[in-house]
Amino acid sequence: MPRMPETVQNNGYGALWSAPFPCGIRPLDNYHGRITMLRVLICASALAVPVSAFAFTADDLNRLCEKTDVASRSACAAYIEGAADGVFNTIDAIGGTTGPRVGQYFCLPPEARSQQLTDAVRKYIAENPNVAGYNASTAISLGLGKAFPCRNENGS
Fold first, then answer.
1. Residue 109: predicted pLDDT
2. Mean pLDDT by 10 residues, the chain (156 residues)
3. Distances (CA, A) of 119 to 43, 91, 97, 104
4. How far from chain centre, in Å, is Cα 103?
């Protein structure tokens, strides 16, 4: 077995010492050594965790919204409002915000409240069990579109 090279290292406090450094990783006696070890640990952790594609589905959202604790109810409402805002802003970015447009899923009235949005989405998911596997934001768009459809100038 080949002998590992010994290196003389200043530990940052003026002391010199020698030791073999496997894999080129310096000991944790100075700042740079700590950063290097932290990088090694982060890389090792990333490789140890299996990579999986996780999507928050309509079924996941519905289960969250069914819970009765305050934190879950708040998370449910916040998720729905955030997704609705994200869809609206995406539509705004590609086509403006005044009046119904092609591709606009829903038009929320100014007086719409958080609980109305939650109720509309949950009702849509319950009435359309085929959307349970859809991405939650897609189900939110569809549910809000059903409850708050856009009207054109003719009123249709």
1. 87
2. 53 49 49 58 53 76 94 94 86 61 71 94 95 92 89 59
3. 44, 23, 25, 20
4. 24
User: Is the Cα torsion angle 138, 142, 148, 154 positive or negative in sign?
Assistant: positive
Counts of helices then strands in the chain (DSSP H, E): 5, 2
When computed from its CA atoms, the radius of gyration of the chain, rounded to whole angstroms, is 27
CB 104 within 8 A of CB 139: no
Which pair of structure tokens corresponds to residue 57? 């589905």
pLDDT reported for residue 82: 93
Handedness of CA 115, 118, 122, 123 (dihedral sign): positive
Cα–Cα dist 137/80, whole Å: 8
